[in-house]
């Protein structure tokens, strides 16, 4: 189980490293400044938990 969990996290982390910069480029901008708040958990960890939950 632990090997599968580690492999899943690595896959999610690789995906997020590629996806996040592209997502921020594509987001619509209405001219006002927007803050990018950082969370306690990285996106890859949150996505891994969601996949495991389902």
Give a written overview of the molecule.
It is built from two helices and no strands. By secondary structure, the chain is an all-alpha fold. It has one domain (2-28, 39-53). α1 crosses α2. It is elongated.
- Envelope shape: elongated
Tally of helical runs: 2
Rounded radius of gyration (Å): 14 Å
Name the beta content range: under 5%
Q: Unreliable segments (pLDDT under 50, ≥5 consecutive)?
A: none
What are the key terms here?
mainly alpha, 2 helices, 54 residues, elongated
Could you give a short description of this structure?
The protein has 2 helices and no strands.
Question: Layout of SSEs?
Answer:
Elements: H1 2-26, H2 43-53
Helix pairs in contact: 1-2
């Amino acid at each position: 189980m632990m090997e599968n969990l580690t492999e899943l996290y690595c896959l999610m982390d690789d995906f997020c490293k590629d996806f996040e910069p592209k997502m921020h480029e594509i987001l619509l901008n209405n001219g006002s400044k927007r803050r990018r708040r950082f969370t306690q958990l990285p996106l890859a960890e949150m996505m891994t938990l969601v996949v495991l939950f389902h």
